Amino acid sequence: MQPTRRRRVIIDTDAKNEADDQFAIVHALLSSSLDVRGLIAAHFGTRRTTRSMEESREEIDRLLDLMDLRGKVTVANGAATAIPDERTPQDSPGARLILAESKLASPQDPLYVAFLGPLTDMAAAILLDPDIVQRPVVVIWIGGVGYGVQTYPGVEFNLSNDIDAANVVFSSGITLWQVPSNVYAQVSVGYAELAERIGGTSALADYLIRQLVEWNATYHPEPIESRSLGDSPAVSLMLYPNGGTFRVRPAPRFGREGHHVPGTGHPIRVTESVDVRFLIEDMFAKIRRFGRGRP
To answer: Where is the Inosine/uridine-preferring nucleoside hydrolase domain (predicted)?
Structure first.
């Protein structure tokens, strides 16, 4: 039975940064209870490329082609770089999409905006139209380190690509759910599991596996046969908002080394665990079902 209501969502994704965004994007698009109002291509800094946002856009388009959804899902380019400071937005079609959809939200039908990379486009939306923080918008961010635990060496990657943007969003008072690194790192899958569960079911599934293995072979410094699908908790929380454990904390700010410093104290919802069984099983089942529907 089809659900009578769908949750309105936007996904802002640095899709070509690693190999996990792809699984999250596909999972969201295959979920009947999610009304994906748009995909926004995000930058991921300049450490590997000078055109990271454009590469994210190309990867989004590649996935939509594999799903026969090109032209059926709104796609917008986000900012090509981080914001220059906490007062100056990087305007973009992606930020404007967030603003336009936020104005259609209501308490009965809020807008969920999931960020799988830096918070650049959300910060831009807030700086362009501060009234957005008063609208029924829920921001879900995969990023930052855990509270009282250290599982990430140095500055967490998504945070590092725009610390100023994170400070804008965390200081704004907008409804914010954070999934820190100690939680998102727990969503790991192995090569054998991927091959056995979804391998051979469709060209889409085979691409998802192949690009993950290729990313590890190119960038991982040690022998490995697994990968954390660290962006997928954002999708599982939109599908099942109570699917985990959470703690309300006062919003911090972030120092240049990625550490927490005192902030405004606005309450934010910090995820302390997610229902990994539900997340993985639901995603794999939908990818297999997609394959069964192919010629």
So the answer is: 9-242
